[in-house]
Amino acid sequence: MGNSSVNYRNLKNGIIACLVPLPSILFYLSFQSAINGDTKSPSFLWTWCYHHPLLLANVLFFFNVNFLFWFISLIQYSHWMIDPYWTVIPVMLVHYYSSHPVAKEYDWWRSRMVMLLTWVWSIRLIHNYFRREKWQWGAREDWRFTDMSQQYGTHWWWASFFAIYLPHQVFLIGLSLPFYVIHSVNKPLNIWDLVAIVVCVSGIVIAYIADTQLYNFASRNEELKGIGKPVVPILDKGLWYYCRHPNYFGEQLWWWGLVLFAWNLGHGWTFIGALANSMCLAYVTKLVEHRMLKQNSRAEAYRLYQNTTSVFVPWFKSSPLELKSKDA
Fold first, then answer.
1. Where would you find the membrane-spanning parts of this chain (predicted)?
2. DSSP one-letter code for 230
3. How far apart are CA 175 and CA 177, in angstroms?
4. Of 286, 69, 57, 59, which Cα lies nearest the Cα of 164?
5. Is residue 87 exposed (0-12), middle (13-18) or buried (19+ Cβ within 10 Å)?
6. DSSP assignment, residue 21?
7. pLDDT of residue 325
8. Rounded average pLDDT over 210-214
9. Is the pTM here over 0.90, yes or no?
10. CB 187 within 8 A of CB 273
């Protein structure tokens, strides 16, 4: 593919990605204008939107993300857009919950700290996405989606709606439930807010370091391959020395840190979103490791890595001698 066609695709996908959230944004601005305006008796639609902020978020997500993203994917034959928007939607949701007309009684400082943290998390993750994709919009879709398309065959065009987009609504709305609680409960800051901040920041930092180490590892292997030298089979340096998926561990810390904010406000039930995401990530981890073991050049080294290194939580390595004594 020539540079001109790559540049055209990059520009086209960038424009699509910037325009696609406009329906929800314009609808929400119209709703706010109607509620805050001089209209003494808002229509039934605006009244419903006012009294049901959580349901409204789900409705907008269903039509603007699930349906519209899916429709665009059918035209482009690629489900690339949900990946960068995984980093954008939580930012939109935290601002939505904070600016909704019904959100009047909440602690301003807690709200702004969570907003700032969400922006930092989003910037880190979207930077990692574009760095990995060589600063292109929609260069490829997630390999897991490609594998699923081969499994579903001719049914993939409709099955993708249920396999990709509906689950993302469950995860992203569920993970963002603490944002809703933070902007619906007024309670002074206390020590648990500080603990939640530390957990969130730790998650962001760990994930950033782990992703940077992974990016440098992959870049170095590309250089080695380019000059005809053997590549390094696995990454087991830095944070990757202490666990096999430190980037996933950092990401989970971030989401569970948000749960701490909500738990401190008396709404510990919001853990359901983080729990569902952790369970899904455990399954994704299994897929990633199975994929590694299918590569002949890496299989033997990765099996040893599995036997000596913790999966998620960073911990001390088990030595091969310890493994032999256990097997004896």
1. 14-35, 55-75, 156-182, 189-210, 254-284
2. P
3. 6
4. 69
5. middle
6. T
7. 47
8. 98
9. yes
10. no
